[in-house]
Amino acid sequence: MNEGHVISEEELDHLVELFHRQGPVMGVKERKDQPGHYLFDWLNTPEEFVAQYVTTTIPPKKAFFPPNETLFTFDSGDPPKLTNQLPRQENFVLMGVHPCDLAAIDALDAAYTQPPGEVRWPSLRDRSLIVGMDCMPDEYCFCSSVETLDARTSCDMFLTRIGRGYLLEVHTQKGERFLEDITLSPVEEPDLEEARKWRAKKAEAMTAAFDVPVEAFREILKRGGLTEVWRQVAERCYSCGSCNTTCPTCFCFDIVDDFDAGLQSGVRRRTWDSCQLLDFALVAGGHNFREERWQRVRHRWHRKFLYLYEQFGRPYCTGCGRCSRACTADINIVDVTNRLVAFSKSSHE
After folding, report:
1. Residue 349: what pLDDT?
2. Pairwise CA distance, residues 329 & 324, whole Å
3. Which terminus of the chain has a lower count of CB atoms within 10 Å, N or C?
């Protein structure tokens, strides 16, 4: 850990103000329509920023991969015209990102830069400065089970709550350059001890957990023979896609062309997609590779804990618990995982 600096509550407010003066800031703020709920959004004023929160409904990947974005517009007039819609061109700050979401951004960095590389994600990542912030879990969080409890990868700075305010770690040269002209208090051993206690308290507060290490769960999925559990879970699932659309590591998308009424011009958009939707695996000719709901449920777990794990060397679940919070059928990813573990054990005894 970079020992960094200590900043007070007032200095944190000043830091957010500095970020805001220099360019756009996406940070956490309270939802006006649902007090007590929070979202990542562009801050209109520094005062909107909320430092202490449990989670947001939609993850911060939206800063680099918007839920709905225009790729280009087209017009068949004389002459025909196609106009590319470039992603954000100015530098910006992403503020208040928890460890689970930092791990998710790092996972998407790996996914989007594999050949053939995606161009929009890395363009926006290069323009961003990410400030992470530690947190306390609720009953849905299980980041200890997927080893993201203390994730710092992908952030330029990281804040941990301590008695004097926050311990500010600096992890990149980009972060160091921003702080060059700012006077901050030096860190002292009691500050580091308080940060260690915070992390220990966080670990103790984690109540949700897998019954086996995540590597062992990968092998259980690979071994198979779990169809009975998949079918039972699918009986409750509505195939609404809420689990995918709130997941910080899902990166599937659809391409949609919207035409005007005269079919002469239109817009090509990229939108988030979900493998839980009925038509996700539908192909020309009407064949659906995952027509049954239980097949789609199985695919989600395999995607998170088997396929991408083997491809990238890490599970593509970071333990944030958003899918369980958002599920309209109250399907909890930890509960189902532990049911799969128990079923596999009983089947092989």
Report:
1. 66
2. 9
3. C
Q: Distance (Å, rounded) from C-alpha 228 to C-alpha 289?
A: 19
Alpha carbon of residue 37 to chain centroid: 17
Alpha carbon separation from 24 to 18, 42, 92, 106, 282 (Å, rounded): 11, 7, 5, 22, 40
Residue 10 has phi, psi (to 5 degrees) of: -65, -40
Q: What is the reported pLDDT for 86?
A: 86
Strands 25-30 and 92-97: parallel
Strand segments, DSSP code E, in the chain are: 5-7, 25-30, 38-42, 68-75, 81-84, 92-97, 128-133, 157-162, 165-170, 185-186, 253-259, 265-272
Strands 165-170 and 157-162: antiparallel
3-class DSSP state of 137: coil
| Per-residue pLDDT at 78 | 83
Residues contacting 77, CB < 8 A, separation 6+:
264, 265
Q: Cis omega (within 30 of 0) on the bond before 116?
A: yes
Please give the pLDDT value at position 1: 45
In the predicted model, residues of the chain with pLDDT beneath 50 are: 1
Name 200's Cβ contacts closer than 8 Å, sequence gap at least 6.
none
State how far Cα 38 lies from the chain centre: 14
Under DSSP, the state recorded for 188 is -
